[in-house]
Amino acid sequence: MKVTCPQCKRRIRLRRGEDVICKCNKRLNYMQFFRKKINYVVYLIDANIFIYADNKKDKRNETCKKIPVFNSPRIKIGTTDVIIDEIKKNKKIVISEKIKIYKTGRISDELKILKTNYLKQPSRTDLSLVQAAIEHAEIKGIITYDKDFGRIATKGIVQKRSSTNFWLGNAGEFLRKYEIKSKVRRPSYI
Q1: Among the listed residues 78, 66, 39, 48, the one whose alpha carbon sits nearest the alpha carbon of residue 177
Q2: What is the C-alpha radius of gyration for the chain, rounded to an integer number of angstroms?
């Protein structure tokens, strides 16, 4: 993110989790500029959430259908352009306009050397989610049924660069954590 130094008005590039000292000796912290702009958090969804939501025979269908249309003023749902490209291969899947789409450029070298186990490397779509989480401070977690993310998340790559804990879970766990249950009021005469 590019910011303007409040003291000397120079434009400086700040990266997530880094402090930069301007030429005028003013210390710039990423989070001080971030909090002024964005008042919501984003949870990224993996391609398998879209696939399960479309598959009516799958037992996870009902919970996965609720994720792309999740509506809250403080919590947004997002994904990456790489995942959108993968989903567009299946013509039946419709993507909601409420979903925030992040553009991921080049995958960093730190992520390219990651392995989910001793031999297997994560797919480009998996790495695009992690790359987006590293680049954007508003992203607080990933919603997926992919077991490989558990191994990637335990390495703490995203948490090293962010100031908060990074959440990882599936659609059911997300809905249990954040969905507001409607309360049923009983009439007073019963």
Answers
A1: 66
A2: 19
CB atoms within 10 A of CB 143: 26
Q: pLDDT tens digits for 16-61?
A: 767 788 889 888 877 666 655 667 889 999 999 998 988 888 888 8
Provide long-range contacts, Cβ within 8 A and 24+ apart, for 112-121. 114/152, 114/155, 114/157, 116/148, 116/151, 116/152, 117/151, 120/148
Instruction: Please tell me the total number of residues recorded for the chain in this structure.
Output: 190
Give the tokens for residue 60.
Answer: 């996870």
Segments of 48-91 assigned E as strands? 75-80
Domains defined along the chain, listed by start: 7-37 (no CATH), 41-178 (3.40.50.1010)
* Contact predicate 122/114, CB 8 Å: yes
Give the span between the Cα atoms of 130 and 80, in whole angstroms: 10
Question: What is the Cα–Cα distance from 136 to 174, expressed in whole angstroms?
Answer: 20
Beta bridge partners of 13: 2
pLDDT at residue 190 in the model: 46
- Tally of CA atoms within 13 A in the half-sphere of 5 that contains its CB: 17
pLDDT at residue 182 tops 60: no
* Cα–Cα dist 38/59, whole Å: 36
